[in-house]
Amino acid sequence: MLIARNGIVDGAEAEVFGWVLSVREQKTVVFLIVYENRRQVQLVIKERKLMSRGIKQNASIWARGTIRTTDRAPNGFEIHVSSIKVLSRPKKLPPFNIMAAELPSLDLRLDYRALDLRRPKNIAIFTLRSKILQYFREYFVSKDFVEVQTPKIIATASEGGAALFPLMYYDKQAFLAQSPQLYKEELTMAFERVFEIGPIFRAEPSRTLKHLSEAISLDAEMAYLNNDEIMDVLEDMVKYVIRRVYERDRDLIERIRAPVIDLPDRFPRYTYSEVVKWINENVEELQEGEDLQAKHLEAFGGHVGGFYFIKEWPLKLKPFYIKPKDDFYSYSFDLMYRDTELSSGGERIHDPAMLRKGLKRVGLSPKGFKYHLLPYYYGMPPHGGFGFGVDRFMMVITGVDNIREVVLYPRDMRRLVP
Ligand code: ATP
Ligand code: MG
Predict the structure, then answer these.
(1) What's the gap in Å between 334 CA and the centre of ligand 2?
(2) pTM of the predicted model, to two decimals?
(3) 211 lies in some domain
(4) Given Cys at both, which of 1, 162, 175, 350 links 202, Cβ 3.0 to 4.6 Å?
(5) pLDDT of residue 20
(6) How far apart are the C-alpha atoms of 364 and 3, rounded to whole Å?
(7) Which residues, chain by chain, have CB under 5 Å from ion ligand 2?
């Protein structure tokens, strides 16, 4: 916290509360870089008696002094200190220097995550993450969506595929929600357009750089739009947020040293069949109907470059609620960035008899979904939407290759603490 009487002008009196990022001692002067409210402020100590306070990295301090504007300090000013107090002194030597150029292993950093988050790059990453969440909300609110929260303790699976985390719910078996899918669909009945930003839980046995057991998903669901119109919304949302970031948060992007993302006028849209054809011509033999593997997406993603859609997937690769196009294909899509899947979406079934058929198609019992089927008998509107991985998007925006770098306290097969 910085309290500057008369604002940041040369000669004004100021008080600062913050923590020490670095200490540079010279013969007649000590420079401190202090983080106050996620911004760096330079303190200059010239008085002998104030220099002997033994102030170290990570200490929390209070100081008072006079503002001097200068180009040599971060943010164009420094404070010449007239009094300073240590409010909290580190009791142990930290396991790594948060200013060091050479990083310790991610595992060690995650063990000391609260401390690791003090690294300037991390402060920038998570400040940006907070801004980006705000921009998503801005976008949806401007399009007249209602923000909703759906239960995270649920009775039945929604996605199939990735396994569920079971838990005891009093005397019953329950699960942590894999996605808000079924609830957000039901909510289009009353609200037409809804979105939710919340956790999804997946017992992912894989240990990849893109999967966590707990991730944050941005889900949107809309009545009356077809597959391509839903892709339009998703594309528009991604462009809105990226443009906003480059408009407003250049300083954070620079501090993160994030690559600048090229936004084409329109994200190319390939059908699944077109991609399969390309794989057959350029990578290896692949049957129509088989899932695209990592090596296929690496090749195709490298060929395309940035954002693109793969649409109209085989029905058998998609969940029960997705609307069939014919006997083989579906009204579905994935949004990709190179070889990373950012989002899956599509049109949904709104007819109850068809939805029962969908459940049977994937080997689920309509009985188990009785409560979900129920509203479908009372005029469920045609609808569709998408689930969009916020953590995956943060990987793209910041250019990191491990999803754990953009999540405060990542959860995976090996990590449940801190
Ligand atoms: P993948 O094929 O990459 O495992 P998925 O197809 O199983 O993902 P969806 O059910 O389509 O995932 O979920 C929608 C979006 O949520 C994904 O496109 C992705 O961005 C994000 N997501 C899904 N699972 C995870 C996870 N375990 N960790 C991080 N993000 C995830
Ligand atoms: Mg998917």
Answers:
(1) 6
(2) 0.96
(3) yes
(4) 162
(5) 97
(6) 61
(7) 344
